[in-house]
From TrEMBL, chain A:
Known function: ATP-binding (A) component of a common energy-coupling factor (ECF) ABC-transporter complex.
Highest classification ranks of the organism: Bacteria, Bacillati, Bacillota, Bacilli, Lactobacillales
SMART domains named in the record: AAA
Pfam families: ABC_tran (PF00005)
GO cellular component: ATP-binding cassette (ABC) transporter complex
Protein localization: Cell membrane
Domain (ABC transporter) ranges: 3-245
Quaternary assembly: Forms a stable energy-coupling factor (ECF) transporter complex composed of 2 membrane-embedded substrate-binding proteins (S component), 2 ATP-binding proteins (A component) and 2 transmembrane proteins (T component).
E.C. number: 7.-.-.-
InterPro entries hit by this protein: AAA+_ATPase (IPR003593), ABC_transporter-like_ATP-bd (IPR003439), ABC_transporter-like_CS (IPR017871), ABC_transpr_CbiO/EcfA_su (IPR015856), ECF_ABC_transporter_ATP-bd (IPR050095), EcfA2 (IPR030946), P-loop_NTPase (IPR027417)
Keywords: ATP-binding, Cell membrane, Membrane, Nucleotide-binding, Translocase, Transport
Endpoints of the signal sequence: none
Top EC class of this enzyme: translocase
Record protein name field: Energy-coupling factor transporter ATP-binding protein EcfA2
From TrEMBL, chain B:
Membrane topology label: Multi-pass membrane protein
Keyword Transport: yes
GO molecular function: transmembrane transporter activity
Subunit structure: Forms a stable energy-coupling factor (ECF) transporter complex composed of 2 membrane-embedded substrate-binding proteins (S component), 2 ATP-binding proteins (A component) and 2 transmembrane proteins (T component).
Main location: membrane
Subcellular location: Cell membrane
Similarity section: Belongs to the energy-coupling factor EcfT family.
Entry-linked Pfam families: CbiQ
Native organism: Lactobacillus equicursoris DSM 19284 = JCM 14600 = CIP 110162
The protein's name in its UniProt record: Energy-coupling factor transporter transmembrane protein EcfT
InterPro entries xref list: ABC/ECF_trnsptr_transmembrane (IPR003339), EcfT (IPR024919)
Gene: ecfT
GO cellular component, one term: plasma membrane
Amino acid sequence: MSIKFKNVSYIYNPGSPLEAVGLDDLSFELEEGKFIALVGHTGSGKSTLMQHFNALLKPSSGEIEIAGYKITPETSNKGLKGLRQKVSLVFQFPEAQLFESTVLRDIEYGPKNFGFSDEEAEKVARKWLEKVGLKADVAEKSPFDLSGGQMRRVAIAGVMAYEPDIICLDEPAAGLDPQGRIEMMELFKQYQAEGHTVILVTHNMDDVADYADDVLVMEHGQLIKHDVPREVFKDRDWLFKHHLSEPHSSLFADKLGKAGFVIKQPLTINELADEIAARLKGVPHE
Amino acid sequence: MSKIIIGRYLPGSTFVYRVDPRAKLLTTFYFIIMIFLATNWQGYLAITIFGLAAVVATGLKAKVFWDGVKPMIWLILFTALMQTFFMAGGTTYWHWWIFTLSSEGIINGIYVFLRFSLIILVSTVMTVTTKPLEIADAMEWILKPLKLFKVNVGMISLVISIALRFVPTLFDQTVKIMNAQRSRGADFNDGGLIKRAKSVVPMLVPLFIDSLEVALDLSTAMESRGYKGSEGRTRYRILTWSKVDLVPLFYCIILTILMVTTRML
């Protein structure tokens, strides 16, 4: 199965003086089970696109196929629960969605909405509390007594607890400390490796280089590139023209090159180390 | 990105937009008082022409004003029909149980309909052509005399300005939280009354917490920039009277003369 967008457009406030194009004739196909990165600067339409994945927004024209559902402008708002159980979104700063009296109950909210029994809900809640790296003793605490980083983890656990087939995360690691960032990214990578689709909306090109299999680049509501990370990051002038940054490894290699130490453009830090080692000793780094 | 604007202000450039917000606010109030001076068809004709003149002067599409009237249309029609069917007088055309259809009733029904519609239309003229912050400034100016009674007008206007400023922020936050909870399987439009009331909790709790946080942040930001009450502060937006403001003044004078004259007919 795959996620298909066919000529999808979205217009904000159609027919009013505030009319604005959110998405402009998007067509693409994503393979399920992959780690997909969605990049583009603020206002490029990433958030608008994201909300189409589980029909929070419906296209003004065009057609979407996702998780066995077909979404068209005529799709009714009723009966979308099944879709939302399969395709879930984690918005930016998801800690703003916490509301329950205890951490455990907050994580159970989603599973219970999707028909899990009380026991099942508690089971998955405890499981995901541990998976996001929190100790079992926070379960009975109020989510509002936790630190910002812990709240973020609780909120993410609250979405992952019902194990959607497709999860789309908007800057899930923004504001976390470096260690926390790596832990969360590894958690998503592992989730994908277990057979789910992960769509990551991000500005962090290092994460794109390190984790993504496939990249969608948005600008002014249009899809301007859809390729693997290596191809996307290959053309420095193109990136510069579209105000996109490069992974640090690639920037570092560029600086080395300018200083006379020319190596092949790497994608990740590991590749960079390999290239440098190979160039220095003629032996691969390991 | 925020796609909404506070209130119902729509950008435009006709002279109505250039009229001082104080003049617009006062003219709107004055117009509403004038409506109640109309007692005969000549009076209603005059006030309707004046009301429509203001609408046309904005240069905006009729739909904008229709959108203003639309939410109230049933209330207006209901009240107008009440007047029509319960008022007796003149020639009676039809009578059944407590309902009467008479010439006086029909005329009064039309008057009530006009009165309501005109009030909404002129208020719409003001709200779509004046930025909410300008309205707040104008209100502060109008409240100024209350200073004599030791009312802290500056503080009141600060409260109004901050409230207006945070309407879109809170609106965005509400949409965001609703979307997040919908993604977690919440259904805000399904089930009976109790179920619906319960479904609001996951939206309201985060919204309250967020508002408190925003309020605390704002007060910290204001204090760290030296805010110590509004006494003696100068303003960023200064309202100045200009020649354009003579238009609403003459508008009011001519309207008054007409209304008083029609009453004497």
